[in-house]
Write a structure and sequence with these properties.
Radius of gyration: 26 Å
Structural class: alpha+beta
Strand content: 15-25%
Distance between the termini: 90 Å
Number of strands: 4
Shape: rod-shaped
Length: 116
């Protein structure tokens, strides 16, 4: 009988190698790209909808703001948060950052919005 006896030491060694292989495979298969651009995500972040929802009441309370929505930058690839304002003034521009939690924020002059 030419069968080799498998020792506990060999089982532990094989198990360790399989575990390491699975870890490497999992890391190689993980998708760490931004869904909106396909670019690498520099840091973990909340979904753009969550970010907007977290700030929308604060922004809507600012005089001159008439709406907030998720839009696209001019490149038509990158998601951004758009804040609709009656008139884009320097004063309003100073009240808003260029980005919120790594999402671009754009002021968009729309004028007064009235229901039809």
């Amino acid at each position: 009988m030419g069968a080799k006896k498998i020792t506990d030491r060999r089982i532990i060694k094989i198990s360790g190698l399989l575990f390491a292989l699975l870890l490497m495979l999992g890391a190689a298969c993980s998708d760490n790209r931004r869904p909106e651009t396909g670019e690498p995500n520099p840091m973990s972040q909340r979904d753009i909808n969550e970010v907007m929802e977290a700030h929308v009441q604060e922004w809507m309370a600012i005089p001159g703001v008439v709406g907030v929505y998720i839009g696209m930058l001019d490149d038509e690839k990158t998601l951004c948060i758009k804040v609709m304002v009656i008139e884009k003034t320097e004063e309003l521009a100073r009240r808003f950052p260029n980005s919120v939690e790594n999402y671009p924020l754009v002021l968009e002059e729309t004028g007064v919005i009235r229901p039809l």
